[in-house]
Amino acid sequence: MKKTMLGAIMITSLAMASAQETENSALQIRAANVQFGLLSSNSVVSNLTDFQKLAPNSDFKEADLIGFKTQNSSFGASGPAFSANVVMARPNTQSNSRLNTEFRFGISFQQTDVLSLSYTRTDEFRVDTLMSSRNGDQIFVDSIYSQDYSLGYTQRHVMVDADVTISTNPIKRFKFYGGVGLSLGLSVSPYTSIFYNTTSELEQSDSQFNTFDREWELDGTYEKFRNKGGFFGRVYVPLAVDFRIGKRKESLRNYHLFLESRTSLMFQSVPELNLLTNTATVTGFGLRYDF
């Protein structure tokens, strides 16, 4: 009987110790944060064939480009970015340790120009030569006609994020952290846009090329085509500086402001084309609250 009771006590003790260890090792929510920022990406090198697949019903044709120069930019226009996260850590993490590990899980949104292409043409010719009644100098009247095509393919990404960060001592008012993360999501309502702009100028100048009179007229058309959505993924490296607002006032000690940069390698599925890869950086300001 004693052996049975002793065995039961040992089993119960081991079970309680195991449960306590599991409880202590489980992640617990420590904080939450939001941040707003700007995404700056490098556009994928593209050509006219890509846009013919993305916008097959466009009025824009290759024959319209006779005499035009190509400008294939490698810099995409900036777009908005937003993220919201919960921050988790193990409960036995020492708050005054020199290095502090945290796990963040959340959602993000961003917009980026994946493809960008433009064509330009300028035609200039002399319309007339006049004589100044004031000093007898020649006045040249020139006509300048400029045409621009701007083609772009834009994606909006909605994704879930997961990353791990290691920070300096969180007791300090300033702390720095860095880490590595992964995002998976979808492109929502991607679209292709085609702008055609013309500028007509009538310019008067003298023999010293001093322009003293100019008239111009602007015109343009715009086409927009919806495209199919696809898969999106990225691997990113967050780097940031964090500032705790409150120093002595207890009600503010749990609030933090931070500036974070996420350098990313992005993988974007474009159903009309294929899988495209490019780099980007999201820089944003955020607010964190510690529970």
Walk me through what this model shows.
By secondary structure, the chain is mainly beta. The chain has a single domain, classed as Beta Barrel (Porin), CATH 2.40.160. The chain is built from 2 helices and 10 strands; from the N terminus they run αβαβββββββββ. Strands 1-3-4-5-6-8-9-10 form an 8-stranded antiparallel beta barrel. A hairpin with a 6-residue loop joins strand 5 and strand 6.
CATH C-level category: Mainly Beta
Q: How many angstroms separate the termini?
A: 50 Å
CATH topology: Porin
Work out the count of structural domains: 1
Strand order of the largest sheet: 1-3-4-5-6-8-9-10
**Biggest β-sheet: count, sense, barrel?**
8 strands, antiparallel, barrel
What's the average pLDDT? 85
Helix amount, in percent? Answer: 10-25%
Radius of gyration: 30 Å
- Percentage beta strand: over 45%
Tell me the CATH architecture: Beta Barrel
Uncertain segments are 1-23
SSE series:
HEHEEEEEEEEE
Number of strands: 10
